[in-house]
Each structure stands twice: as structure tokens, then as C-alpha cells.
Write a structure and sequence with these properties.
This protein is an alpha/beta fold. It is built from four helices and eleven strands, in the order ααββββββαββββαβ. It has a domain of about 150 residues: L,D-transpeptidase catalytic domain-like, CATH 2.40.440. A nine-stranded mixed β-sheet has the order 1-4-3-2-11-6-7-8-10, covered by helices on one side. A hairpin with a 4-residue loop joins β3 and β4. The radius of gyration is 17 Å and the shape is globular.
Length: about 220
């Protein structure tokens, strides 16, 4: 916790807010949005193996509820799928295609696992190469000072849980040993997947970020395009 606070103080003021997202809205409104969710605009197709959702019992051991999303309300390309590896990256690499709203975990020279994501709003995007510096399950969220200035009422800390903007898991991206303040993380706003919605971080469905978390380790290479 102290390390995160110290790192935030060294952040360059000219950079856009990089810790993701705004404060969570009420849980009842979240459920309403899930019911009323419109279809995400269709994107390009890739040959993919059929998707099978994990049963709710998969998450019974989680300390907080994992709300299962109705995937039929999203473009099919937002579903996890095994696809041909067209990234050119080595096995174990995470590749983020910001324009297509896809994240790929490269499994081999021939195959990759694809997930749907939300990316940064206009002016908040980031592209480059980083590594997974650390990982956390159900992390707390510490809004930065500039976020608290633009959104009055934000507390210093938001506890882990279903209403936390970082969701069920977070992968903290580092470059040259320093925190970039960009994360790959879950979300308390699943209806944003497939859109430009964050403050620069990569959002995933909580079910998907849990699966990704279990397949990667600190030190994994991340390429954001």
C-alpha cells in the first residue's frame, strides 16, 4: 500500500490518468444495465472454436460474488475463443489489439486465446511494450489525486469486492522496473466491454480476467497495439 502511494506521488502531471475507471455506481443500477444492455457493434470475424461458459459453481470459492454476464447480449467476438495466432508474438505473450477490442494470450506459434476487452477513451489510450510487474486477486483501488480532483467525493481507498472498479483480478504493467499505472483488470461495469470506456487500462469481464490470471505469471510480456 505504501509503495503504491509513493509511486503515485512521483507520477508526471502531464500524463493522463492511468489508474482505470471512475467510482462504481450502485449495485441495483449495475443489474439494470445488464438487463438493458444493447448489442455491441459487430467487428471482424476470425475462425474460433465454440464458446462454453463456465458454470457459476466455478466461482463458489471466490470471496466476493462473480456476476455471470449474458454473453448473448454482446458481439460474439467478445467471447473467449481459441483462434489462430496471427499476432506474431511468442508463446506466453499477452497482445492487446486496441482497435478490435481484443486481448490475446499466445499459446503457441499456431494458436492463441482471445478475449473481449474495453480500452481507453479518446485521449487516454496507451500503446507500447511492458511486463506484468505484479498480480493481485480482488485488489483494493486507490484513486489518484487528479482523479479525486475531477470526481469529487472519491475516497482514498475503495475496498475489494464486487463494486470495486478493478474487479476480481488485476495485472499491473511495468516498464523498465517502474509502474506504468496501466492495468489489465476485471470490471464492475461489464456492459462497457467492447467499447472505449476506461482511463487507459484494459478492462475484461471478471470471468475472463480470472481465467487469464491463472494462465500467466509475473514477468510475462505485454504488447499493446
Amino acid at each position: 500500500m505504501d509503495q503504491d502511494r509513493a509511486l503515485r506521488q512521483r507520477r508526471q502531471p502531464s500524463q493522463p490518468t492511468a489508474i482505470p475507471d471512475r467510482y462504481e455506481i450502485a449495485g441495483a443500477w449495475c443489474r439494470l444495465c445488464l438487463v438493458a444492455l444493447p448489442l455491441v457493434v459487430l467487428s471482424g470475424c476470425q475462425a474460433a472454436l465454440p464458446y462454453q461458459a463456465a458454470p457459476a459453481s466455478t466461482y463458489a470459492s471466490e470471496p466476493f460474488p462473480v456476476r455471470l454476464v449474458n454473453r448473448d447480449r454482446f458481439d460474439p467476438s467478445m467471447r473467449p475463443a481459441h483462434v489462430p495466432n496471427t499476432t506474431g508474438a511468442a508463446a506466453g505473450t499477452i497482445v492487446v489489439d486496441t482497435s478490435a477490442k481484443h486481448l490475446y494470450l499466445v499459446e503457441s506459434k499456431d494458436s492463441a486465446m482471445r478475449y473481449g476487452i474495453a480500452v481507453g477513451k479518446s485521449g487516454y489510450g496507451w500503446k507500447g511494450t511492458a511486463t506484468v510487474g505484479r498480480m493481485a486477486k480482488w485488489p483494493p483501488w486507490y484513486p489518484t489525486d487528479d482523479m479525486k480532483q475531477t470526481t469529487p467525493g472519491l475516497p482514498d481507498r475503495i475496498a475489494p469486492g464486487a463494486q470495486n472498479p478493478l474487479g476480481a483480478r488485476a495485472l499491473y504493467l511495468y516498464k523498465d522496473g517502474r509502474d506504468t499505472y496501466y492495468r489489465i483488470h476485471g470490471t464492475s461495469e461489464p456492459w462497457t466491454i467492447g467499447t472505449e470506456a476506461s482511463s487507459g487500462c484494459i478492462r475484461m469481464f471478471n470471468e475472463d480476467v480470472i481465467a487469464l490470471y491463472d494462465k500467466v505469471s509475473p514477468g510475462a510480456k505485454v504488447i499493446v497495439r
